[in-house]
Amino acid sequence: MNAETHAGGHTWRDLPAAQQPDWPDQEALRDVIAELESYPPLVFAGECDQLRERLGAVARGEAFLLQGGDCAEAFDAVSAEHIRNKLKTLLQMGAVLTYAGSVPVVKVGRIAGQYSKPRSKPTETRDGVTLPTYRGDSVNGFEFTEAARIPDPERLKRMYHASAATLNLVRAFTTGGYADLRQVHAWNQDFVKSSPSGQRYEALAREIDRAMNFMNACGVDPEEFRTVEFYASHEALVLDYESSLTRVDSRTGNLYDVSGHMVWIGERTRQLDGAHIEFAARIRNPIGVKLGPTTTAEDALTLIERLDPEREPGRLTFITRMGADKVRDKLPELVEKVTASGAQVAWICDPMHGNTFEAASGHKTRRFDDVLDEVKGFFEVHKSLGTHPGGIHVELTGDDVTECVGGGDEIFVDDLHQRYETACDPRLNRSQSLDLAFLVAEMYRDQ
Ligand SMILES: O=C[C@H](O)[C@H](O)COP(=O)(O)O
Ligand SMILES: C=C(OP(=O)(O)O)C(=O)O
């Protein structure tokens, strides 16, 4: 049974859904949906509940959320190397934040499902040729040809299989010994010599070693450090896909979107009377909503009414993405009014999406300093209001790409062409991601 049959009558299909693909063949789409409905879940509803509890700790100020990964995952990047590099970067950031920030870190990837992208424009023009815009590998091809850009519902099945393969490897890495905290040095081996952030990380890893030896001597079982809790999240954008992966949990009778542990609704699809919010309201997964600079306090309060009527800490995460120049003006009123309403949401900072610009070379990029400044502004606002800066949400990769400028191992505008590999937005590379983790850990400690 899927979300619609269970909910009956009034469903997301009755409401306007922004950013949906223009599938040319509706019958082919129906066949794909029917097939997806027969596939097994990618995650277990109990895992979603566990993440909701962890996020409850974030909302209460007892833990910090690290959410990160690709802007857009690609089918041809489902390889052991890419997945390991991304996971390694997140594990290293997690170790830095936990140790230097002295806070438990909830680790959530933008991974195993981040295949669909909302776009500003429906078409793209190059050298006088106009084609439909690329909407993620779940919808059409990145290649700039007429054939590639036609939305093909068969791609939704490839999304499912790519997500399953990714999740399988992530689970193997995180429970099979690779993520063992005693491997803190091993995660850094290919990196330490060349980069300042790698060297800084190595010093921290030595301190972690000493702390672990101490705990060992005190009788703490080293097996405690063998596995790591890691969750998968993505934007719930293409509702035909998300809905066909929505199932009734046999334990509770509740609906869960079993395509990932956590899903979020993006800035372009969070209309209060739209299909995405209606869909999210019906599932029990932890939900994120992106809040950009045009969000009013009334919008935020209505989102809480719709998505978290029980005021359950961990159910709703607001991921703010104001831009470095606006965060100090726009965020305070939202946090103040939401707090005054008694709701306990988790507040997370996405310092990427409000800080994008086009370099003279035509590359879409972000300045590391702007990213950092938005996080600083986010911390300042929470400090002044006595609320909890709950975490960060970042677009990153474990590969040494040149997509964002700045960082300790500085990337210059003229370097952007060297390894500009993203299919959509610019990501922090491994060194920039680690730099950010160290700086955020300092901010958290000072808080
Ligand atoms: O990742 C976010 C959006 O999909 C992206 O910023 C939209 O980019 P566009 O403005 O190039 O369409
Ligand atoms: C599209 C995204 O962000 P936003 O909705 O905040 O623009 C994203 O995080 O991929």
What can you see in these coordinates?
By secondary structure, the protein is α/β, with parallel strands linked by helices. The chain is built from twelve helices and 14 strands. The strands form four sheets. It has an eight-stranded parallel barrel, surrounded by six helices. Strands 3-4 form a two-stranded antiparallel ribbon. Strand 10, helix 10 (327-340) and strand 11 form a beta-alpha-beta unit. Helix 4 (80-101) packs across helix 5 (154-175), helix 4 runs parallel beside helix 12 (430-446) and helix 10 runs parallel beside helix 11. The longest helix is centred in the first third of the chain and has 22 residues, at 80-101. The model is unreliable at 1-10 (pLDDT under 50). The structure holds erythose-4-phosphate and phosphoenolpyruvate (PEP). Phosphoenolpyruvate is lined by residues 71, 118, 235, 266-268, 290, 321, 353. Erythose-4-phosphate is lined by residues 71, 117-120, 353, 424-425.
The computed structural class is alpha/beta
What is the helix fraction of residues, given as a range? 25-40%
Largest sheet: 8 strands, parallel, barrel
The 3D shape can be described as globular
Global Rg? 21 Å
- Going across the biggest sheet, name each strand in turn: 1-2-5-8-9-10-11-14
Cα distance spanning the termini: 47 Å
Low-confidence stretches: 1-10
What is the percentage of strand-forming residues?
A: 5-15%
The total strand number stands at 14
> pLDDT average, as an integer?
94
The run of helices and strands is HHHEHEEEHHEHEEEHEHEHEEEHEH
Bound molecules: erythose-4-phosphate, phosphoenolpyruvate
Number of helices: 12
Organism: Streptomyces decoyicus
GO molecular function: 3-deoxy-7-phosphoheptulonate synthase activity
Catalytic activity: D-erythrose 4-phosphate + phosphoenolpyruvate + H2O = 7-phospho-2-dehydro-3-deoxy-D-arabino-heptonate + phosphate
EC number: 2.5.1.54
